[in-house]
Design brief:
5 strands, alpha/beta, Arc Repressor Mutant, subunit A, 2 domains, five-stranded parallel β-sheet, 233 residues
C-alpha cells in the first residue's frame, strides 16, 4: 500500500506534456522521449493546431477532466498545416493563461522568434535540441524559466539591442482603461479583473473592447505585447 501511494504521488507530480506537431515520426518520437523520462508524461499529441485547440479545451475543462490528464506544458511546432503555431499560441494563452507553451521548431529567424514570444510562448527551442536538453527545458519552464536554444538566445539578445520602442506612445487610453490593461498584463482574466476592480464582468468586457480598438489589436496577447513594447503600463 505504501509503494502504491508513492507511485500515485509520483504520477500526480509528473510534468504533463502535450505535443502539437504535424509530422507523425517526430510526434511519436517526442512522445517516446517524454514517456521514457522520470517525472514526465505525454498526455496528448496532435497533428494540427485546430485539433489541439479542441482537445486541449476538453482536457482543461474542470467539469469534465481529471487534473491528472491536464497538460502543464505544450510543445508547439510553428510550421503547421492550417492554423500556424504562433496563432495557436495566442489562442491557447487567451483561453488557458496557466498553460506553459514551449516552441519546438526548425525556424530561428527574428520575426518568428519575436512573434512567438509576444504571442505568449515561454521558451523557444530548435528541433535539433538533444533529448536530454529537451527534458531539462521542460523542467526549466515549469520552474519558471524561459528555455531557449543557444542560437535563439543570441537572436533575442540581438533583438533587444536593436529594438528601440518609441519614447512616447499615446493611444488616448482613459485611466480606467489603463487600469484594466495593467490587470491584463499581470495575467488577470475578465472575472478576476472584475473582482479586483469591484465591477461586473460585462463592464470589464466593455473596457477591454475599447482598449483593443484604441490599440488596434484583436486579442489579449496582442494587447499585452503592445502595452509592454510601448511601456503603457
Amino acid at each position: 500500500m505504501q509503494n502504491q501511494n508513492v507511485n500515485n504521488l509520483q504520477a500526480s507530480s509528473a510534468i504533463r506534456v502535450a505535443i502539437v506537431e504535424d509530422r507523425p515520426d517526430i510526434r511519436d518520437g517526442l512522445g517516446q522521449i517524454i514517456n521514457g523520462a522520470d517525472g514526465c508524461k505525454c498526455v496528448g499529441a496532435y497533428g494540427t493546431m485546430e485539433l489541439a485547440l479542441v482537445e486541449i479545451d476538453k482536457l482543461m475543462d474542470a467539469n469534465t477532466s481529471s487534473k491528472a490528464i491536464q497538460p502543464d506544458v505544450i510543445l508547439i511546432d510553428i510550421g503547421l498545416p492550417g492554423m500556424s503555431g504562433i496563432e495557436g499560441i495566442r489562442l491557447l494563452k487567451e483561453r488557458h493563461p496557466q498553460l506553459l507553451l514551449l516552441v519546438l521548431t526548425v525556424f530561428d529567424d527574428d520575426t518568428r522568434i519575436f512573434d512567438a514570444l509576444c504571442a505568449g510562448a515561454s521558451g523557444y527551442l530548435l528541433k535539433k535540441t538533444p533529448p536530454q536538453r529537451l527534458l531539462e527545458s521542460l523542467r526549466e519552464v515549469v520552474a519558471g524559466g524561459a528555455p531557449m536554444s543557444p542560437e535563439v538566445a543570441s537572436r533575442v539578445v540581438h533583438l533587444f539591442r536593436t529594438f528601440h520602442p518609441p519614447t512616447q506612445a499615446d493611444y488616448h487610453l482613459s485611466p480606467h482603461e489603463l487600469r484594466v490593461l495593467k490587470l491584463l498584463v499581470e495575467g488577470y482574466n475578465y472575472k478576476t479583473a472584475a473582482l479586483e476592480l469591484g465591477v461586473t464582468v460585462n463592464t470589464i468586457s466593455f473596457h477591454v473592447r475599447r482598449v483593443y480598438d484604441k490599440l488596434q489589436v484583436h486579442s489579449k496577447s496582442e494587447a499585452v505585447a503592445k502595452a509592454l513594447k510601448n511601456k503603457l503600463v
